[in-house]
Amino acid sequence: MPEIIALFTVLNPCLSTTTLRQLCQVVFALLAMTGQVTMLNIPRWTSKGGSYRTIQRFFSTDLTWPKMCWLFFKNYLFDPESEYLLVADEVIVSKSVQKTFGIDRFFFSVYGKAIPGLSFLAMSLVSVKDRRSYPMMMEQVVRVNASDNTNVSAKT
To answer: pLDDT tens digits, residue range 53-78?
Structure first.
């Protein structure tokens, strides 16, 4: 398992030492866990220094996930001999609960009508040679003003 943590050294430019240590604790726990992945279960599977409060601090930290994904891709996955396409796709997830942040009505082409749900915009780099997709960013699309149909992205 320490081999996996060594891969995170490329994230040093965009993470503080504390945040990187917390990320390692969370990754160790997620790889070892059985059952449900919850905020209560993650500290149960961490080693020393992985308290519930530490896990809370990590998840409340603002991280630049697109930059982290790019650094990881550039250092470990990039093949200079391959062509890459930047693709984006909007995904609608149906929801019936009314108290979910960002719930609204979005057009869902499978049903051919607008349904209550959440909308996410995902961007990936796709290797033409390997036919593989490398996700770079995913953001929730939240409607600001329903009367003028203006949408904005809210980072998730």
So the answer is: 899 999 999 999 999 999 999 999 99
Helix-, strand-, coil-residue percentages of the chain, each rounded to 5: 35, 35, 35
Cα–Cα distances (Å) from 27 to 37, 74, 93, in that order, read: 12, 21, 26
Residues, the chain, total?
156
All structural domains of the chain with their residue ranges: 2-60, 65-155
Kindly give, in sequence order, each residue whose CB lies less than 8 Å from that of residue 26, ignoring residues fewer than 6 positions away: 42, 46, 50, 55, 58
pLDDT per residue over 21-54, tens digit each?
889 889 888 888 888 888 888 888 888 878 888 9
Helices (H), the chain: 2-6, 17-32, 41-44, 52-60, 65-72
Taking CA atoms, 49 is separated from 20, 26, 33, 46, 155, in Å, by 13, 11, 17, 8, 28
- Measured between alpha carbons, how far is residue 7 from residues 23, 75, 81, 112 in Å? 12, 9, 23, 44
Secondary element (H or E) of residue 7: none
CA–CA gap between residue 115 and residue 71 (Å, rounded): 37
